[in-house]
Design brief:
Blueprint (H helix, E strand, L loop, with lengths): L1 H6 L4 H10 L1 H11 L7 H10 L11 H18 L1 H5 L3 H24 L4 H19 L8 H23 L8 H36 L5 H26 L7 H27 L7 H23 L8 H32 L3 H28 L6 H23 L1 H4 L4
Helix pairs in contact: 2-3, 5-7, 5-11, 7-8, 7-9, 7-11, 8-9, 9-10, 9-16, 10-11, 12-13, 12-14, 13-14, 14-15, 15-16
Keywords: Membrane, Transmembrane, Transmembrane helix
Protein name: DUF4153 domain-containing protein
Length: 414
């Protein structure tokens, strides 16, 4: 490695290639050679690059650590509130699950991005209004509008988190793509934390069992539930302070599973024809069909969120285009099934909500597909795909707000 570095010192392209081939060995060899290369400006630049230490600590600033620790404790406390105050757990969790984590993450990014006081007060007002609204809706187990509000409220809070994530710069729309990347990285970090926590839980319970103490019930009721509530906060902190930990994993997963999802969708559509099952007469099948649609759309969006013309080759863009085309077909089937059910059995809150969501997703997918085709045919840049996503993500948040707050009144709380 030493001789190769010396031979290619005046060939930046080859030196970069050598560095990317084996970074740890390159750094060790270069640092060993550096004393005899001190007078070379290029060598000095490489030395500074290889030995640069970020001024920001791995664990962030003391204020940030204190904020995250406090948020994690509050999340754990909110998760255990039914036990502490003897509340009905089903009532509390179905209506307030989103409030355990999202307001804390919103507060974290509001502090980190130093958003204006007026914006902070506006966000706090919306969250408090949402808390009051969802908890004062009439208690009716069979109310479709109540269930819809409980499902769409966390999605609305997620949209508010996206707005706060971008800070005051969110007005230019660019940070919605960054927000999608953050979600992918957070999902990977949460998975790692859950695996680690699961191993730690198994080890702790079994160690205490060896000395005759059965702590399983206590551990799950207090430690595990509180820990689960704190995981998104801790995961966000790690993603923000050490972005290099997982920022290559989520796009890798998206690129890996995109072709698999494409093949799976084609096989599934073919199998559906011969199975006799269809979303037109089977309500449960239609729900699963829409769940599949949302999952594949998320895969496309996470892939595009990391995309750039330099990183994506024509094959990857082609796979994304084909995947979007097949997803448009799936969406078309789901949308026609919803319209068929409305024409046959009338408009209900559930059908209205699914209809609106399917129309939005179809328009969005068509726009993304057109942009992907433009990038594939070299008529436009891949960045335009990201701009089309920026346009629609706030619209989804607006639709969630309509379903959450207006549907109960429009359908008389049915």
């Amino acid at each position: 490695m030493d001789q190769e570095i010396l031979l290619n010192l005046n060939n930046p392209r080859q030196l970069e290639k050598l560095y990317r081939t084996n970074r740890p060995s390159f750094k060790t060899a270069f640092n060993a050679l550096y004393p005899q290369l001190k007078n070379d400006p290029l060598a000095e630049g490489w030395y500074q690059r290889l030995n640069y230490i970020s001024e920001s600590s791995f664990w962030g600033t003391p204020q940030e650590r204190l904020l995250v620790a406090s948020a994690a404790l509050v999340a754990g406390l909110l998760a255990k509130l039914p036990k502490i105050l003897s509340l009905n757990e089903e009532f509390y969790y179905t209506r307030n699950l989103g409030f355990i984590v999202f307001p804390l993450l919103i507060a974290y990014f509001a502090w980190k991005n130093e958003i204006a006081s007026k914006t902070g007060l506006w966000l706090a007002g919306v969250i408090l209004a949402a808390v009051g609204f969802i908890n004062y809706l009439p208690q009716n187990q069979s109310s479709d509008t109540l269930i819809l509000s409980c499902i769409h409220l966390p999605l609305l809070l997620w949209a508010l988190l996206g707005f706060t994530f971008g800070g005051e710069k969110s007005k230019n729309g660019i940070n919605w793509l960054s927000f999608l990347r953050y979600n992918g990285e957070l999902a990977v970090m949460i998975a790692l934390l859950l695996i680690s926590g699961g191993l730690m839980t198994a080890l702790t319970i079994n160690l205490f069992r060896l000395i005759g103490w059965d702590i399983q019930k206590f551990y799950f009721e207090y430690i595990v539930i509180s820990g689960l509530a704190a995981v998104p906060v801790v995961g966000t902190f790690l993603v923000q302070t050490q972005p290099t930990l997982v920022n290559k994993v989520s796009p890798l997963i998206a690129n890996l599973f995109s072709p698999i999802a494409l093949v799976m969708l084609l096989v599934y559509l073919g199998a559906m024809v011969f199975s006799g099952k269809d979303p037109y007469h089977d309500r449960e099948f239609l729900l699963l069909f829409n769940g599949l649609l949302i999952g594949v759309m998320a895969l496309i969006f996470f892939s595009v969120a990391d995309a750039s013309s330099e990183r994506k080759n024509s094959t990857q863009i082609l796979i994304l285009f084909l995947l979007s085309a097949v997803t448009i077909l799936v969406n078309g089937i789901a949308l026609s099934a919803v319209l068929f059910r409305i024409s046959e059995w009338g408009l209900t809150p559930n059908r209205a909500a699914v209809l609106g969501a399917n129309v939005l997703m179809l328009i969005h997918l068509l726009l993304v597909g057109i942009r992907l085709w433009g990038a594939l045919s070299r008529k436009s840049d891949l960045s335009l795909v990201g701009k089309s996503m920026n346009l629609f993500l706030p619209i989804y948040g607006f639709w969630c707000a309509l379903v959450t707050f207006l549907f109960p009144f429009l359908f008389d709380f049915k």
